[in-house]
């Protein structure tokens, strides 16, 4: 989620694009309200839609998400992937897992989701699946390690999506906060990665998008 509507693009464009999106269905609207009320950083609506479209367009069957929160992006992945899809998502917070389990159950997608409890850097080395899609959205300082570990489990031709790469507009400025510096370094690593064809888009809070070569 971006810090404010016009953190990345000009306000007039941001407002226009925001109102252009169709209204969220009741479940997603409830999740958005819960996230706003409890300060849970879920994906922007356009990012969630982008993920859903990508999952659908690429025919992804197995997706790996790092950082589930209340399951907002998981619902979109599941909808994009359809009934054959499996989403493995990593989340250490029991409070988040409780909230997500309820929403995923009510959304009718829980049978297509495997929640891995724990920290991504501890869980990822034990995964054995080969994934079609990798979505990175947890601790900003660990993005490089998530990508390294995730690429080991992503098939050639698989897609990588990374949220928050412009980090509320701070990455492009002179901000020296640890997470900002880490993301600045990550962006260089991501764009120049020999195993990826990658781009950073001004979508949401800055969205990394790549295909594994
Ligand atoms: C930005 S939120 C995820 C939002 C979610 N992808 C969405 O768009 O609906 C980041 C999540 O990562 C979780 N997290 C924190 N540390 C983590 C770690 N070491 N490994 C995996 N997830 C972690 C947090 O508890 C939080 O729920």
Please name the defining characteristics of this protein.
213 residues, seven-stranded mixed beta sheet, 20% strand, globular, binds S-adenosylmethionine
3D structure, described in words:
The protein has eight helices and seven strands, in the order αααβαβαβαβαβαββ. Helix 3 runs parallel beside helix 4. With 213 residues, the protein is an alpha/beta fold. Helices cover 41% and strands 20% of the residues. The longest helix is centred in the C-terminal third of the chain and has 14 residues, at 178-191. The radius of gyration is 16 Å and the shape is globular. Helix 5 (94-106) links the parallel strand 2 and strand 3 (113-117). The protein has a single domain (11-212), classed as Rossmann fold (3-Layer(aba) Sandwich), CATH 3.40.50. Bound molecules: S-adenosylmethionine. S-adenosylmethionine (SAM) is lined by residues 41-43, 66-69, 72-73, 90-93, 96, 119-120, 137-139. Residues 41-43, 66-69, 72-73, 90-93, 96, 119-120, 137-139 line the site of S-adenosylmethionine.
């Amino acid at each position: 989620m971006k810090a404010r509507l016009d953190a990345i693009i000009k306000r007039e464009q941001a407002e226009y694009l925001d109102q252009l999106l169709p209204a969220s269905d009741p479940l997603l609207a409830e999740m958005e309200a819960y996230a706003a009320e409890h300060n849970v950083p879920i994906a922007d609506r356009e990012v969630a839609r982008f993920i859903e479209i990508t999952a659908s367009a690429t025919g992804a069957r197995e997706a790996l998400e790092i950082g589930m929160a209340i399951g907002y992006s998981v619902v979109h992945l599941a909808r994009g992937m359809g009934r054959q899809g499996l989403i493995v998502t990593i989340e250490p917070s029991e409070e988040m897992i409780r909230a997500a389990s309820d929403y995923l159950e009510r959304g009718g997608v829980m049978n297509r989701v495997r929640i891995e409890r724990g920290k991504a850097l501890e869980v990822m080395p034990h995964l054995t699946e080969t994934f079609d899609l990798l979505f990175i959205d947890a601790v900003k300082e660990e993005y490089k390690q998530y990508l390294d570990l995730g690429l080991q489990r992503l098939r050639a031709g698989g897609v990588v999506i990374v949220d928050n790469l412009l980090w509320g507009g701070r990455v492009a400025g002179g901000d020296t906060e640890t997470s900002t510096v880490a993301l600045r370094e990550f962006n260089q690593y991501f764009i120049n990665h020999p195993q990826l064809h990658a781009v950073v888009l001004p979508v949401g809070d800055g969205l990394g998008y790549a295909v594994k070569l």
